[in-house]
Design goal:
The chain is an alpha+beta fold. The protein has a single domain (2-104), classed as Glutaredoxin (3-Layer(aba) Sandwich), CATH 3.40.30. Helices cover 35% and strands 22% of the residues. The protein is built from four helices and four strands. The longest helix has 12 residues, at 13-24. The relative contact order is 0.19.
């Protein structure tokens, strides 16, 4: 999975996304890329910057998750958890860890 951050001015969204993925232990699974390619504006109908885009090449999926705002850290974490489907037992670690047990019991 790839997260693209579209922007043309300095912002802290890229840092917040990277930190959220690192804290969740997903930074090896979900890659982050910055882009200022204007062709993506037309392709995805982006009207405001920054924009967070999720891509999954294996199923030819690309969508804008949000534009213009920079969510709080907890919102970003919940967004990533919901996207990867952490609530499924197949994603949990083989042994009971505090993190996985807490999320999977929801």
């Amino acid at each position: 999975m790839l997260v693209k951050i579209y922007w043309d001015t300095d912002n802290n969204l890229i840092n917040k996304v990277n930190l959220s993925l690192e804290e969740l232990g997903l930074n090896e699974f979900i890659k982050v890329k910055e882009t200022s390619d204007n062709s993506i504006i037309e392709e995805l109908n982006i009207t405001k910057k920054p924009a967070l885009i999720i891509e999954e090449e294996s199923i030819d999926f690309r969508d804008v998750i949000f534009e213009w705002m920079i969510p709080e850290d907890e919102e970003l974490k919940w967004m990533f958890i919901s996207i990867i489907g952490w609530w499924e037992w197949s994603w949990c670690a083989p042994s009971d860890c505090a993190w996985c047990s807490g999320w999977c019991s929801m």
